[in-house]
């Protein structure tokens, strides 16, 4: 069945799956690697290791949520339950830091895997020169090669700053000097007390006397169930920085368009919009809205419907409202876990193109997963109507 699925997906993607599979992989980092996750203080020069959020089990009672959890393959689960990851903060002495990849090398030359999230990102670690000298004092960073993506910036990068809030001395945050102006403003809004920013060239590593490493809140692909206080730190700071008027009650029903996207477009989007407008929804293109307006839109939302995409990272600013995601032909549970963490009601619709009992590729399936995730999709209008009417 999987072999036939590969053939079908390659045909549906216009051969993109085959071309992706044939593309040469980037050379992977081949040096020594060490991990601190789980409190294994194996790296040289560890001065402090503090667990900020211990591992815990989360059990789901809702049958729809349990069915979705069981079908995805990114996060291990048993009988409707999954396990969160440990969040920690570690201080290391005599560190080398790469502002492009976010990689940290311990005093013995081993790359600390926790600094880049997981082994899948070793491909972003390149050989770059080291600046002369050593920076004295305590430093940290939330830099990474894909933090330019909306989801990775808001949900993966900025929440790590909260782990620095309780550090007992001032910290200088090292960030690449190519960080765009809007990201700099958002970063400034989320800085904890006693943390300042220093921008440095992205193409040169630096040696630092002490490095404070805030762990990623998940290492399992991008499917996070982040600690609520880390998310609240970013949400509250960015809403405050947006200078919004008081929240409107009742809020607005919103649909996020993807008609200008390169992938994952909704084939029958005109019919979807027509149906939703009869139920009080208004369509938006997030790329046309200034950031403050996006924050306001989601903060004031009553219901949110959207195809899978980075724009749903704005759910960070929404209250506990119903969320319906048009899923793809791959299991992409990013917003399933995010809505759980935010206390929002999550529903999903698989596309009409999905054959009953067809295997759903997961991230470990590589090019097959990427191709299936990015195919255009057709929404089941009857199912959509039923869900919205149930909510109403």
UniProtKB/TrEMBL annotation:
N-terminal signal peptide: none
InterPro entries tied to this protein: Glyco_transf_61_cat, Glycosyltransferase_61
Pfam families: Glyco_transf_61 (PF04577)
Domain Glycosyltransferase 61 catalytic, residue spans: 151-320
UniProt-recorded Gene Ontology molecular function terms: glycosyltransferase activity
Keyword terms, alphabetized: Glycoprotein, Glycosyltransferase, Transferase
The keyword Glycosyltransferase belongs to this UniProt entry's keyword annotation: yes
Keyword Signal assigned: no
Protein name: Glycosyltransferase 61 catalytic domain-containing protein
Organism: Candidatus Promineifilum breve
């Amino acid at each position: 069945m999987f072999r036939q699925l590969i053939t079908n997906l390659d045909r549906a993607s216009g051969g993109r799956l085959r071309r992706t599979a044939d593309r040469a992989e980037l050379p992977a980092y081949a040096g020594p690697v060490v991990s601190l996750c789980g409190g294994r203080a194996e790296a040289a020069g560890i001065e402090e290791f503090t667990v900020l959020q211990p591992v815990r089990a989360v059990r789901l009672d809702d049958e729809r949520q349990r069915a979705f959890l069981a079908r995805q393959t990114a996060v291990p689960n048993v009988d409707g339950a999954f396990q969160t990851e440990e969040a920690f903060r570690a201080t290391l002495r005599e560190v080398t830091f790469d502002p492009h990849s976010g990689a940290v090398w311990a005093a013995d030359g081993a790359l600390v895997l926790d600094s880049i999230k997981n082994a899948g990102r070793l491909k972003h670690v390149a050989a770059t020169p080291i600046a002369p000298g050593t920076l004295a004092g305590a430093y940290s960073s939330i830099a990474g090669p894909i933090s330019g993506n909306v989801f990775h910036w808001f949900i993966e990068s900025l929440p790590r700053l909260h782990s620095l809030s309780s550090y007992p001395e001032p910290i200088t945050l090292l960030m690449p000097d190519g960080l765009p102006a809007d990201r700099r403003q958002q970063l400034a809004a989320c800085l904890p007390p006693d943390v300042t920013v220093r921008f440095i060239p992205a193409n040169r590593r630096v040696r630092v006397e002490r490095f404070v490493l805030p762990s990623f809140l998940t290492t399992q692909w991008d499917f996070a169930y982040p600690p609520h206080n880390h998310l609240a730190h970013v949400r509250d700071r960015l809403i405050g920085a947006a200078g919004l008027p008081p929240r409107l009650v009742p809020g607005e029903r919103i649909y996020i368009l993807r008609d200008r996207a390169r992938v994952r477009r909704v084939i029958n989007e005109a019919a979807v919009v027509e149906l939703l407008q009869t139920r009080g929804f208004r369509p938006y293109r997030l790329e046309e809205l200034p950031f403050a307006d996006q924050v306001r839109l989601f903060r004031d939302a009553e219901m949110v419907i959207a195809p899978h995409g980075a724009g749903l990272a704005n759910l960070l600013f929404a209250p506990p409202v119903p969320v319906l995601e048009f899923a793809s032909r791959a299991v992409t549970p990013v917003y399933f876990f995010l809505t759980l963490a935010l206390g929002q009601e999550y529903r999903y619709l698989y596309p009409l193109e999905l054959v009953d009992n067809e295997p759903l590729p997961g991230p470990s399936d590589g090019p097959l997963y990427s191709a299936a995730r990015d195919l255009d999709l057709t929404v089941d209008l009857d199912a959509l109507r039923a869900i919205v009417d149930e909510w109403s």
